[in-house]
Amino acid sequence: MEGFFVLNSARTMLAVYKRKTIELSELEIMLPRMSYEQFAQTVLSLEEEGVIEMMKSKGRNTRNPSLAYVYRIHTTPLKQAHHADLLKHRILLHPSIQLDSYFSEEPSLWNHDSPYILKISSYIEEKGFPAYEVPAPERSVELIGDEKWITEKRGEELLKRIGLLAPMKIIPVADPLMFSLNPSAINRNKHLHLIVENKTTFQALEDALPKTVFTTLIYGCGNKIIKSIEQFDRQLPLSNKNHEFYYFGDIDRSGIFIWHKLNQKVPAKLYLPFYQACLSKDTLAGKTNQRYDQEAILEFLTYFSKGENLQLLTMLENGQYLPQEVLKTKELQEIWRQSHGIE
């Protein structure tokens, strides 16, 4: 197995080597420290694959086995060897593991991922697929022996790439979804949920929640909502899953971007009564360094009239903004109650 990894490492480094020829001494430095016999076997294997070819004018050394002093590198066999290696592993690995994406990627990705994939395959062969969900660090230890592999070392990407993220039953590591519940709305046929970006707005609206038709008021906590919303069904397992989400955030480039990313995960309509009330207030200055995401802003503008669009674009391009806090507590509560009625 060790020889397999060394050979794969050699192929990867040769694939990105800048020159067309390489000296034997450079190859020796490039590869992990090993005995001459092991080193020679690796080099001779590369010769047999056609990855490297002896430059006859430079000759070979007198050691046993004998190696050339200088080799010419051929990249085409590297790709052929890569594809052959993938085809071989399709047979060796558990049939649930999908390798299709690696055929179009650089060999270096496969060489990086393959040790982990072999461990995952062994896990499935020995234990089968998990029967219940566990947190990502726990599953990470089971699969790889490293609790940070899934969350911090791109293990989640690898599992997606080979089609095993869902079958591995992993509970995402994210901050809990923070929300207040309206008990009287639990048995409704349709559940409305209002997500607000900032804590001040959440606290201002919390007392008004029972007097609305909304089931929950959710604290987005800035961009944390993009991840924490994944916990929604787990934390609020309602039998009726007819949900409709609304969002209210700061009217600035960052607030719009947060909504846009959230909307890609869970459809979330802008809660227009609050946004339109904000537009009647005086803007503040000082948000010139935020990222201007054109796609997010254009989608945001589709909710507003032409006149409002002009006002919003002028404000955003000039680095001005309207935080949620321009609406005071009583004003927020009154708008919310009037917009959706009192129960």
Keywords:
343 residues; alpha/beta; elongated; single chain; 16 helices; five-stranded mixed sheet; three-stranded antiparallel sheet
Describe this structure in words.
The protein is an alpha/beta fold and 343 residues long. The chain has 16 helices and 12 strands. It has helices spanning 2-15, 24-30, 36-49, 75-92, 107-127, 136-144, 149-152, 155-161, 199-206, 225-228, 232-235, 253-265, 272-278, 294-301, 306-317, 329-340, and strands spanning 21-23, 52-54, 70-73, 134-135, 170-171, 178-181, 191-196, 216-219, 243-248, 268-270, 284-285, 320-321. The strands form 4 sheets. Strands 6-8-7-9-10 form a 5-stranded mixed β-sheet, with helices on both faces. The chain has a 3-stranded antiparallel β-sheet with strand order 1-3-2. A two-stranded parallel sheet has the order 4-5. Helix 1 packs antiparallel against helix 5.
Short description:
This protein is of the alpha/beta class.
Strand content: 5-15%
Q: SS-based structural class?
A: alpha/beta
Q: Could you estimate the helical fraction of the residues in percent?
A: 40-55%
* Radius of gyration over all CA atoms, rounded: 29 Å
Instruction: Give the number of DSSP strands.
Output: 12
Distance between the termini: 68 Å
What form results from the Cα inertia axes? Answer: elongated
Q: What do the pLDDT scores average to? A: 90
Uncertain segments are none
Number of helices: 16
